[in-house]
Amino acid sequence: MTFDYDLFVIGGGSGGVRAARLAASEGGARVALAEEYRMGGTCVIRGCVPKKLMVFASAYAPAMVDARAYGWDVTAGGFDWSVFRAKLDAELDRLEAAYTTNLQKAGVQIFNARAVLEDAHTVTLSSGERLTAKHILIATGGRPFVPERDGSDLVITSNDIFKLDELPRSILIVGGGYIACEFACILHGLGVQVTQMYRGAQILRGFDEEARGHVAEEMRARGMNLHVGTDVLDLRAQNGGVWVKSTDGREAVYDKVMYATGRRPNTDGLGLAAAGVTLGRWGQVQVDDYSQTSVPSIFAVGDVTDRMNLTPVAIREAAAFVETVFKGTPTRPDHDLVASAVFTQPELGSVGMTEEAAREREPIDVYCTSFRAMQTLFAGRPDRVMMKLIVSQATRKVLGCHIVADHAGEMIQLAAIAIKMGATKEDFDRTVAVHPTMAEELVTMKTPVRAG
Ligand code: FAD
C-alpha cells in the first residue's frame, strides 16, 4: 500500500515539532504536520515561554526595592502592562515564525488545520483534505481543566492570562499546582492583589513536603493571601468582577478569578477510540515504553500521554520515537531523574526522590539547611533559602535534591547532572565550594538533620 506520507504528526507543539523535524531531516521521511492554532504549541504560545517572560517582568519590583537598600537612588514607577504585552506578542510571533521556518527548511509539509483520525493510517483535516500516512503521531498536548459548576463561565485560565487587555487590580487564583503558584507570584510581583485558594492541605502536591512548606511560607511572607484547605463554594458576576464565597466562609469580589485546577489531554473528538486507540481515565493516550499505542501505526508523545508533562520530556519522547521508527534503533525515553523547576518567587528546583518517597523505599539520611542569603540579607529582606539532599544509607548515593531559592531552576539543572551520574554524598563533599554563593551549601552540609 502506498501512503501520502511516511509520518503525519497531529499537533505542532514541543513534541510534534521535534518529531516532525527529526523524522524529515535525520530519518529521511516524508513528513506532514497539522496544527490547529499556532505553531510552537503550549510551551511557546501559552506556557513556559510567555510565563517565564512574565516571571522576569515581575521580579523587577523587589529588585528595585533591594536596589535602594544597596544605595541606588531609584524609585519604582508603575508597571505598564500594555508595553509588556506588545513586546510579548511580538516575541511570540517571532518564535512562531522561527518554528514554522525550521519545519519548512527540514522539508515538512505544514497544514494550518485541525486533524482528526479516520483510521489507523488516515487523517482528515478541517480544511477538507483526506491524507494517508504509514505512521501517525498524536502530539496534541493538553488544555486547562475547569470543573463544571455554576459560574464556571466567569473564570479565566492560564490560556487567557497572556491575552488580558489590562491587568486586574485583584485576582483569586484557584489551585495549588505549579501553574497556580507561579501565576500567584507573577501577578503579585506585577502589583496585583493576589488571593490563592487550594482545597488540599498544602500547595505543590508531589514535591518534597519540606520544600512545599518553605515555598508556601515565603509566598505568604511576600504578601500573597494563600489559603489552603479552602475551596470555592459559589461564584457570581458582580459589579464588573466576580463575587466568590469560599468554604471558609469568606466572601469577596475579585476583578478576575483564575482556575488552575489541572489539565486534561487533548483527545476529545480526535477519533482515537474509533480507530482502536486505548485511552486512559482522563482521555490520555495509553502508550508502551516506545510511545506506541494499541494501534501499531499510531504513536503518541508529550502531554497527551500524561506521563511527565514537561517540554523537555515531550522533546525527548519525540526524539526517541524517531530513533525507534525512522532510524532503526529502538529507544525508550528516559523518565528517570528528570529535574524540574517551579518558577515561584523564590523558585523551587527539584530532582529525584522526595524525602517521603525515599523513606518508603529504603533507609536514608537527610541533609538540610535553611539560611538567609547574603544578597537579600544585606537588602534587609527576611527571605530564607532551603537546600536539601536525600541520601541512601546503603549506597550513599544522592537520591534527591530540593532547593528553594532565587535561581533554584539554574542550580538544579547542574546538580541533576551529578545525581544522574550516580554521585554519592561523599562526591558532593569532595567538591570544593564556589564562594561566596548560595549553592556552596550543597557541598558543605556535614551532618544529617535526621535519618529515616
Ligand atoms: P503542546 O505543546 O500542548 O502542543 C500540542 C499542539 O497540538 C497545540 O499547539 C495544539 O493547538 C495542537 N492540536 C491539538 N489538537 C489538534 C488537532 N486535532 N489538530 C491539529 N492540532 C492540534 N513545561 C516545562 O518544561 N517548563 C515550564 O516552565 C512549563 N511551564 C508551563 C506553564 C504553563 C502555563 C503551561 C500551561 C504549561 C507549562 N509547561 C511547562 C508544560 C509544557 O508547556 C508542556 O509540557 C508541553 O508544551 C507539551 O508539549 P506537547 O507537544 O505535548 O503539547
Which fold does the CATH topology of the largest domain refer to? FAD/NAD(P)-binding domain
Q: What is the 3D form?
A: globular
Ions, cofactors, ligands: which are bound?
flavin-adenine dinucleotide
CATH superfamily of the largest domain: FAD/NAD(P)-binding domain
Distance between the first and last residues' Cα: 61 Å
The count of strands amounts to 22
* Unreliable stretches covering 5 or more consecutive residues: none
Oligomer: single chain
Mean pLDDT: 97
Q: Secondary-structure map with pairings?
A:
Elements: E1 5-10, H1 14-25, E2 31-34, H2 41-46, H3 48-69, H4 81-105, E3 109-111, E4 115-119, E5 122-125, E6 130-138, E7 142-144, H5 158-161, E8 170-174, H6 178-189, E9 193-198, H7 209-221, E10 225-228, E11 232-238, E12 241-246, E13 251-254, E14 256-259, E15 263-265, H8 272-275, E16 298-300, H9 311-326, E17 340-342, E18 347-352, H10 355-361, E19 364-371, H11 374-378, E20 385-392, E21 398-405, H12 408-420, H13 425-430, E22 450-451
Parallel strand pairs: 1-2, 1-6, 2-3, 6-16, 8-9, 8-14, 9-10
Antiparallel strand pairs: 4-5, 5-6, 7-15, 11-12, 12-13, 17-18, 18-21, 19-20, 19-22, 20-21
